[in-house]
Amino acid sequence: MANCLRVPMASSLPCSSSSSPSLKRRSMRTLCSMNSTKIPIPPVNPKDPFLSKLASVAATSPEVLLNSQKNSDTPPYLDIFDSPQLMATPAQVERSVSYNEHRPRRPPPDLPSLLLHGRIVYIGMPLVPAVTELVVAELMYLQWMDPKEPIYIYINSTGTTRDDGETVGMETEGFAIYDAMMQLKNEIHTVAVGAAIGQACLLLAAGTKGKRFMMPHAKAMIQQPRVPSSGLMPASDVLIRAKEVIINRDILVELLSKHTGNSLETVADVMRRPFYMDSTRAKDFGVIDKILWRGQEKIMADAAPPEEWDKNAGIKVLDAI
């Protein structure tokens, strides 16, 4: 934009045909003096509302700028604004801030969708039909999106029971997720955050070998399946359910033995009662491969071996003993 603006031609200004000759001569003298006067215009920033308004007034009504009263108490040119407004709406304030320039213009998706975008499946509830349906659907979707990228399953679930031991889902809910995991071509990383109890512990152990993790203070527990509430069932129906629970227990023992590397007898023996494991015990039992403890590798590398501890303590090892 030019550094100055000249007043438009006299023909562009409105005039009346009935005006007197003296008035016309006076107007012509005024326009001539205005035409020879340069209006100072500051450097124009197209995004600056004040300068944009100032340039618009200079182009349409330059006499407003020429005849403005100079007042030392107020900055110049502010009188051309009838009702100054900094911003019209809060939305304009948001859009005007530089760090919100790339902010999405639509509401973000729900949290499970954001996790799914990062190829993360989070199991944070007991294994009821609604949870099983969602988890299986997410696993199938992630494999369809990319059959080569790994899938991360974060587990914080009490399995098919609540924390007080009451049955809330059938054992087949856990088996359904397990079968879906086994059918996938992707590498599956399982991470226990909080608790992995019962069928949830099976899902933790079913991850890809070497990619099964546990937080330092998470807990894992394996236990026998429980008989759902029989209510007013006939005795024959209760017996049928009891046989089905025993079948599910044997399947659970077989699968845990397969993924932990323990014998069937060892798994069946520890499952007689609830068998709790912290992260270290779960690693020793074969449920996980690594504890996600930040800095653990450096700490373990700096730790001296037992022989050096004995040597520094003055303990002599006798070969004869």
TrEMBL record:
Q: Does the keyword Protease apply?
A: yes
Q: Which InterPro entries match?
A: ClpP (IPR001907), ClpP/crotonase-like_dom_sf (IPR029045), ClpP/TepA (IPR023562)
What GO terms in the biological process aspect are recorded for it?
proteolysis
Q: Listed GO molecular functions?
A: peptidase activity
Domain of life of the organism encoding this protein? Eukaryota
Q: How does it assemble?
A: Component of the chloroplastic Clp protease core complex which consist of at least 16 proteins: CLPP4 (3 copies), CLPP5 (3 copies), CLPR4 (2 copies), ClpP1 (1 copy), CLPP6 (1 copy), CLPR2 (1 copy), CLPT1 (1 copy), CLPT2 (1 copy) and 3 copies of CLPP3 and/or CLPR1 and/or CLPR3. The core complex is organized in two heptameric rings, one containing CLPP3,4,5,6 in a 1:2:3:1 ratio and the other CLPP1 and CLPR1,2,3,4 in a 3:1:1:1:1 ratio.
Q: What is the protein named?
A: ATP-dependent Clp protease proteolytic subunit
| Source organism phylogeny | Eukaryota, Viridiplantae, Streptophyta, Embryophyta, Tracheophyta
